[in-house]
Each structure stands twice: as C-alpha cells, then as structure tokens.
Amino acid sequence: MEMKMFFPLLLLVCSVSTAELQVQSDNDILSHVRQTEGQVEEAESLTERQTCTQDINAVLREMTALVAALKVEVQHLQKDNEAKQLAFSASLLASGSGYTGPFNTDITLIFRNVVTNIGNAYNPNTGLFTAPVRGVYHFDFHIHGHGSTNPTSAVLVKNGEQIFTSWTHQPAGAQKASNGVSLLLEIGDVVFLRMRANSRIYDNTDNHTTFSGHLLFTM
Which chain positions lie within coiled-coil regions (predicted)? Predict the structure, then answer.
C-alpha cells in the first residue's frame, strides 16, 4: 500500500520539478530574448546616431564650403561695385585768379582744384584721367577767357589722339567755350585736356574753367 502511494507522489514531484525547470528555462529564454532585443535596439540607435552625425558633418562641410564661396563672391561684387563708382570734377586753379598761357606749344592742362574724385582715377598732379575699368565714360569741359589777340582753346585728348575741341575768340569781353563726349575706354586708357599753342585760359575762385568725367557703365 505504501509503495503504491509512493510512486504517484514521486511522479507528482518530478512533474512539479520539471514544470519549474521549464518555467525557469522559459524565463531565462525570455530574458535572453529581451536582452538581445535591447542590444539590437541599442545597436540600431547607435547606428542611427552615427549616421545622423555623419549626415550633420556632411551638411556642415557643404555649408562651410558654400559660405566660403559666398564670401569670395561678395568680395568680387564689392570690388566690382567700387570699380563702378567713378566720377571727378575739378577746376583749373587751386586758388586765386589768373591766366594760363599763352605758350608757343601745346600744354596739358592740370586742373588742381578737385571738387570730386570718387575712385581716384583723376590725378591732380598730372591732369590725367586713367580708366581703371573697361566701359563707356562721359567727359565735359568748359574753358573761360577774355577778349584779346589770343584765342581761348582746348582739346580733349585720348591716348594722344585729339577727340573734341573747344575754341572761342573775340577782341573784347568775356568768352566761354564748352564741349563733351562719351568714350569707350579700355583699362589704362588716358584722357586729358590740352591747351592749344598761343591760347590763353582764365580761371578764378568762381571756377569758370572745369573738367569733369564719370563712368556711365562697364563693358
């Protein structure tokens, strides 16, 4: 009788132990799976962060290169804009009043009283305007005199070539002559006024005799 009861009890204990072992095994497997899933998720997150960091670095490099290119372009635009700002106006005498001439040969007129010289293309020491950029420029000149045996005359010259002339002559009274021209100039071309031989030109603090020019547009 005791033996008959022992075997069922033993079977029950074994079954319980097996079930506990199975549960423990399942728990271990589940824990391992969860741990593995966590590691996979962490690895994926790390990969995403690394990819995101790489993308950000790539974008930053592109933006840095773009900013550098824009800075260069801005500098070029600033230089171009500065080159396009060209204008000057000057009268013949720096102070006082009096005549220039007559001389027995042509001379370059030097307009020393500079009112405007944006771009510094006009040189008040030589009387020469030198084109810093290729473009179309406009020049005006006015000369003043008084009646005498000598005419009042000047020529606008480009690189040694006579372009336009102003000339007036009368025996008495004040006299004035003017002219103007638009010229296509290359870089380094020189424009100035030349007084004709045996002419005389008057100026005073009222600035009657003037020379002006400015850039119309580049080409």
Answer: 60-87
